[in-house]
Amino acid sequence: MTTPTNDGYYEAYWPRTPRQVGIKPLAPRLKSLDGKTVAFLWDFIFRGDEIWGHLKEAMGQRYTGMRFIDHTEFGNIHAGTEKAVLAALPQRLRELGVDAVVCGMAC
Fold first, then answer.
1. CA 53, CA 85: separation in Å to the nearest integer?
2. Phi-psi group of 32: left, alpha or beta (phi > 0 → left; psi -120 to 50 → alpha; rest → beta)
3. Which of 2, 3, 90, 106 has a CA 20 to 30 Å removed from the CA of 24?
4. C-beta separation of 96 from 69 below 8 A
5. Is residue 8 one of the residues assigned to a domain?
6. Is the pLDDT of residue 5 over 80?
């Protein structure tokens, strides 16, 4: 009969690879949404289009001079065109002068 030599210790391997991207600082928070341009990104799942309508109404009443850009300007951030839409997103946000983004539902 053999006696275990590991004293209850076993090698284990984490199934994921090490992080490929380091932690980055968050963008500074806007002091106010007055006069800002806010875009809505959506994955076309659940009822984001309905919720966005309510958000626009409530935010428009609370902050003056807001401009809203609907999800239709960007495309579906999930599914078949996801990679292309997300790759083009930073440039598209700059072109449209977006100050803040609401990413809706399962983003």
1. 22
2. beta
3. 106
4. yes
5. no
6. no
Token couple for 61: 């009443």
Look up the domain containing 80 and give its range.
Answer: 37-104
CA-CA distance, 84 to 65, in Å (whole number)?
Answer: 32
State the Cα–Cα distance between residues 59 and 54, nearest whole angstrom.
9
Q: Give the strands of the sheet with 37-42, arranged side by side.
A: 67-69, 37-42, 100-104
Counted domains in the chain: 1
Q: Which residue matches tokens 């994921």?
A: 16
Confirm whether 78 is domain-assigned: yes
For residues 29-38, give the mean pLDDT: 95
The DSSP secondary-structure symbol of 76 reads: -
Domain-embedded: residue 32: no
56 lies in some domain: yes
